[in-house]
Amino acid sequence: MSIFETLSNEVTGFLGLGAVIKLFQTGDYSSLKTIDGVFSVMRPIIPLLLVIEILRTLFTRKFKKGQYLMPFLIYVFNDVTGKFISFGMVALCIGWFSKYALIHTYFIWYWIVYGYIVWEFAHFIYHFLGHKVRLFWCLHSTHHAPEHMNLFVSHAHFFLEAPYADIIRTSICILLGVDPPVLFFIMFIDGFWGSFIHVGEHLIKNARLGFLNNLILTPSHHRVHHAKNPLYMDTNFCNLLNIWDRIFKTYQPEEEGIEIEYGISREINNDNFFDVYFGEFYGLFRDIAKAPGIKNKFLYIFMPPGWSHTGEHKTAKVVRSKFIEENLKY
Question: pTM to 2 decimals?
């Protein structure tokens, strides 16, 4: 295969155009009668929005390559790495845990609703742990490192985060009886919405989406989640339904008077791929090496980011609580 064919395949794959091109080439549209067929032609929507977002910034002369370059490099690195590492965690978890399911469901609307509520719970657990356990934060921080929001940020993940997420989310869903076809259907919706909520201000300035802001988690809520402002830290862990954020008191709407500052709280060189991708691991290993005693070394791995064996904690919970306490005085 020539380099041009390889590049063409990569571009087609990223844009999700393979199924659409096949439809036009064969003239056989019968696949559109199936859910998989409909999903396959819907895949290009998010990449198309990304292209529109970039073109709009170019047209308005607001394009800055730094806002897109690092997420793009991470996407390319993960794509190359993924060709050599394939975990198939979803299939493994389904095989392992299906026989232990508490109930059995099937593909009908009320079980889909049940499945989505369970899925959001599982997503909340995975996402919450990604912020509250330092080892998992090392995997998740790559996604939070960009200091600007755009659709490419949805592709900026550490390559091992997906297997870790799939183990937790799939295991919980299967154990609670979510049927695999229902699970795959939910995963598609979740993936689509999960990409869309990263839409940047260049494409949608006010991302509250009107009345929907009170019903679901909108891009506005997810911008809050990506913020390093003290009030916004470690909030809005759900993806579409905000039920679990409200139950566990992690729901936080975007406040009019607090402009969002994207990124992570430590000093980071966002132009350095290794700092963005591996910087949190370096910081963790450094703290482990300096920590006195085996107990403290293990605690640095499993306690929240910002925890210190000296008691001078700078965790998100401490920083946010202090901010709220000080601002409630006035």
Answer: 0.83
